[in-house]
Design goal:
globular, five-stranded mixed β-sheet, disordered N terminus, 7 helices, about 450 residues
C-alpha cells in the first residue's frame, strides 16, 4: 500500500506483502548494514539479478535461474486508443553511492515524503526519520530509537499534515507528531491489536497505514499465516479508522489469492510469498480521502491482458473504475521450470515435490502491474512488468483517465511523485541510494 505522499504509507505492494513486512519489522529481520557491505563483493551480474528478483520472493535463486526469467520476457506494447503524454524519468541527484557518513547509508528505503523544501526519508534499517533539503543536503534525524516520547521501536509509516510530520510506530502502537524543526510535539496511543470492526474480526487485527486530511486513518486488516492456511481468510479488509485506530467501517475487501503459498507436511508448515503473485494492489490517498484498488491478474491468453484501477471513497462508494489493456509479457516454460526447481531445492527435504506443485502459482504471463503509487497531484502511477532494460509506468489522472506513459530504470522504485519530479530508491552495485528524478515530457502519443 502507498499513500499520496503528504500521507505516505510504506511500500507499494499488496496487503499481504505489508503483513509480511510488518512481521519482519517486529521480528527485527531487516537487512543490516553489514549485510549490505557484504553484497558489495558480489559479481555485477549477481547484484543486478538478485535485486531485480528481491521484490517477488523471499527465497534466494541462482543467477542462472534469474537470467532465464529476464530474457524470456518480451517488451510490453500498448494497444491503440486515446492519446497520452510520453514521459521519461531522468535521474539528476543520487545520495548514498559515494557519500561518507551514516546519514547517507541505507538498508532499504521504504518511504519518502516531500513537504516544500523538506524531504523526509524512512529507511527499514533505522528507528528514526532522516530529513534532507531538496538539494540533497542532510539536515537532521527526527526521532530516535527507544520507548520514550518521540522515540520509535517499529517505525512503519510517515506523512505530513500541514507542516507537521506524523509517524506510525506499530511496535508501540502509537502515532507521534513533530514540527518542521524536527521537535517532538505530541503522541497518542492506538487501540490494541485484535480490535477490528468486522464480522470476521477474530481473523484480523487493525493496522493503520496513513492519516487522512481530516485526521482519520486508512489501514487494513492484518492476519496470520495460520489463518490463511486454515482457510479462514481468503481476502483482507481495507479499513477507515478513527485516529485511535478503531475501525469506523470496511471500505472494500481485496483478495489474497496467489499472494502466498502454504506448504504442509506431516511435521511442518511453511508460509511464503509466491514468486509470481498477482493479487490486487492497494494505494492510499489520504489527502483526498480515498483508496485505489488495482486488479492485476496474470493473463491466460497471449492475445489479451489488462488491469483495472478503482477509486473508492471513505463511504465505500466507487468514484471511478478504469480498465487499461496491455500486451501480455510471457514467461517461458524454461523460466517457470527453473523457478520451480529452485524453490524445490530450497524446501527439501521438509516438503515433497507434489506439495510444491499443489501450492506454487506459475502463470504463463507476468502480472501486468507490479507496483502502484498515488502522486502529490492525485494521479496514480502504475508500474508495468519489467521487460528488457526499461520499465513502463501507466499514469492515470485523479479522475481515472490514462493521460501518460512514463519510462524509467527497472532498478529504481518510485516512492514519491509530483508533476515535475520524483524521488525513489535506486540500487547501485547492490547498495541502496536515494535518487531524485526529473520528469521530462517528450511528446503526445497515441496508445
Amino acid at each position: 500500500m502507498t499513500c499520496r505522499q503528504r500521507s505516505n504509507a510504506p511500500g507499494i505492494q499488496s496487503v499481504a506483502a505489508h503483513s509480511r513486512g510488518l512481521c519482519r519489522l517486529l521480528a527485527g529481520t531487516c537487512r543490516s548494514r553489514t549485510q549490505v557491505m557484504r553484497l558489495r563483493r558480489m559479481t555485477p551480474t549477481m547484484r543486478v539479478l538478485r535485486r531485480l528478483w528481491a521484490p517477488y520472493t523471499s527465497h534466494r535463486f541462482s543467477p542462472a535461474v534469474l537470467l532465464l526469467l529476464l530474457v524470456s520476457c518480451d517488451a510490453a506494447s500498448v494497444p491503440e486508443g486515446q492519446r497520452s503524454a510520453a514521459l521519461r524519468l531522468v535521474p539528476e541527484l543520487r545520495l548514498g553511492d559515494d557519500e561518507d557518513g551514516s546519514a547517507f547509508q541505507f538498508v532499504r528505503i521504504a518511504g519518502v515524503v516531500v513537504d516544500g523544501q523538506r524531504v523526509y526519508v524512512r529507511d527499514e534499517g533505522s528507528q528514526f526519520v532522516r530529513q534532507f533539503d531538496s538539494g540533497g543536503r542532510f539536515v537532521r534525524n527526527v526521532g530516535r530509537p527507544g520507548a520514550g516520547p518521540g522515540e520509535f521501536q517499529g517505525l512503519f509509516a510517515i506523512g505530513t499534515l500541514a507542516d507537521t510530520l506524523w509517524a506510525i510506530d506499530v511496535a508501540q502502537r502509537r502515532v507521534s507528531m513533530f514540527n518542521s524543526d524536527g521537535r517532538f510535539i505530541r503522541s497518542w496511543p492506538l487501540d490494541k491489536l485484535g480490535q477490528a470492526g468486522s464480522a470476521r474480526a477474530d481473523s484480523f487485527f487493525s493496522m493503520p497505514l496513513a492519516l487522512t486530511s481530516d485526521g482519520e486513518m486508512l489501514g487494513f486488516g492484518g492476519t496470520t499465516g495460520r489463518a490463511i492456511a486454515d482457510g479462514r481468510v481468503t481476502a483482507s479488509p481495507v479499513y477507515r479508522m478513527a485516529r485511535s485506530g478503531a475501525v469506523i467501517g470496511t471500505l472494500t475487501w481485496v483478495s489474497i489469492r496467489h499472494s502466498d503459498m502454504v506448504l504442509r507436511s506431516a511435521s511442518a508448515m511453511m508460509y511464503r510469498a509466491q514468486p509470481f503473485a498477482d493479487n490486487p494492489l492497494l494505494a492510499c490517498d489520504g489527502a483526498n480521502r480515498r483508496v485505489i484498488v488495482i486488479q492485476r491478474s496474470s493473463s491466460d491468453r497471449r492475445s489479451a491482458a489488462s488491469f483495472r484501477a478503482t477509486a473508492i471513497n471513505l463511504l465505500g462508494d466507487t468514484l471511478w473504475s478504469t480498465v487499461v489493456p496491455v500486451a501480455p509479457v510471457p514467461i517461458s516454460r524454461t523460466a517457470r521450470d527453473s523457478v520451480r526447481e529452485a524453490v524445490l531445492r530450497a524446501i527439501r527435504p521438509r516438503f515433497a515435490a507434489a506439495e510444491l506443485d499443489r501450492a506454487l502459482f506459475l502463470p504463463e504471463f507476468a502480472t501486468p502491474v507490479t507496483a502502484a503509487i498515488v502522486a502529490a497531484d492525485g494521479s496514480t502511477w502504475l508500474r508495468g512488468a519489467d521487460a528488457g532494460g526499461s520499465v513502463r509506468y501507466y499514469v492515470l489522472d485523479r479522475n481515472g483517465s490514462l493521460t501518460g506513459l512514463a519510462s524509467g530504470n527497472p532498478s529504481t522504485r518510485l516512492l514519491w511523485v509530483s508533476d515535475r519530479m520524483a524521488w525513489g530508491e535506486e540500487v547501485v552495485d547492490e547498495v541502496p541510494t536515494l535518487v531524485r528524478l526529473r520528469i521530462e515530457r517528450t511528446a503526445l502519443s497515441g496508445r
